[in-house]
Amino acid sequence: MTDAMFLLPLPLILLGWVIGGGSPGPATLAISGTSMQMGRRSGLTVAAGIVVGSACWGITAGLGFSAIMMNNAWLFEIMRYVGAAYLMYLALKSLRSAWHGGVVEIPSVSGRKLFLKGLMLHLTNPKAVLGWGAIYAIALAPGADHASVWSLFAALICASSAVFFGYAILFSAAPIARAYTRAKRGFEAAFGFLFAFASFKILTTRLA
């Protein structure tokens, strides 16, 4: 990759992408919560689903399909409502767990379900569509060829993988897992309110 491909230096593009991806949101909440409650392997599985979902939107935007979605508002609206409903489901699930309290038990959830949870989170998040479309528009120089698009995609998805898998490793560390065990109800209540807030934010997202 050469600097001529990009409007900004690649390290600066990646830094902005990492900060955006690592900021609190549905994906990071799901990874951190799963990692603390169920352990590193489960957290990494959710993270893998999120990375695949991100890659799907990155490829979609790279092929130009995101522009079609932006020009057909009803597609965006359907995805927005589905995503908000799914986040509200996660919010109610966390709040119910906080309300009942009790002894911390590690639930038995299949890897497939955990992967699909992460995938669903990112495929129904309209901000992911906007994010990928925006980064290509901001980062790529006018007239950039297909090689430039896919080189940038590869760099960005690697950065996303580092962020999301890093969250799983960090929040599954023994001290953090013990803190979760001691304050399970507080954590679950916090996750519930944050998921509900994320649902509200998605419902108020607008194309312009």
TrEMBL record:
Claim: Chloroplast is one of the keywords in the record: no
Subcellular location: Cell membrane
TM regions (residue ranges): 6-31, 43-68, 74-92, 128-144, 150-174, 186-203
Membrane topology of the entry: Multi-pass membrane protein
Keywords, alphabetical: Cell membrane, Membrane, Transmembrane, Transmembrane helix
Cellular component terms per the entry's GO annotation: plasma membrane
Molecular-function GO term, any one: amino acid transmembrane transporter activity
Name under which the protein is recorded: Threonine efflux protein, putative
Organism annotation: Roseobacter denitrificans (strain ATCC 33942 / OCh 114) (Erythrobacter sp. (strain OCh 114))
Highest classification ranks of the organism: Bacteria, Pseudomonadati, Pseudomonadota, Alphaproteobacteria, Rhodobacterales
